[in-house]
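User: Could you check the structure of this?
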Amino acid sequence: MSGKRGTRLTPDQRREQLVGIGLQMLADRSLDELSTDEVARRAGISRGLLFHYFDSKRDFYRAVVRAACERFTAATEPDGSLEPVAWMRAFIAGFVAYVLEHRQVYLALVRGAAGSHPTVSDIVGATRETVARRVHDGRRRLGMPDAPQAELVTRAWMAFAEEAVTTWPAEQPGARDELCAFIESSLVNLLGLLDRPRALTPR
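Assistant: Sure, the predicted structure tokens are below.
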């Protein structure tokens, strides 16, 4: 949201405003291209005043990335009272809906932020760990025992789901439902590998 010069905001409100502008700008550019000059201009303040609320450009970037990650994790948190299958489907639906609606922001985070700005890699990494724990929780809710390969399966599915949701032709009718079904099917198939014997037996 844009502000006007002279608008009186509390420090917390101003920080929230500046972070919100940063999130809006990530919708059409990478984190590298996020200009604090432009953020300040849109807020109607000087660049110097922006750094009254943030210690540095990196501090501002971290605040923007943290806000985006918090929105993502909130959008993908299912209702804990749901039955196991409904819980997992709600998790997948939340993941798909968020990325389809905020694709550029998501790409800026998972494809750009961690590599271009190591100072935010811990925030992005913690978000990935949250997603991994939810997949693990889903397996537990479904009554699937832990297995040595479970962590590998979780990471493999996350990489697959991320690629699918960021490249799926979302403009087609029914794309969201088809994508949810596709990602759910991939998870079911991968989880099924945990209960299967090895494909080849020793001769």
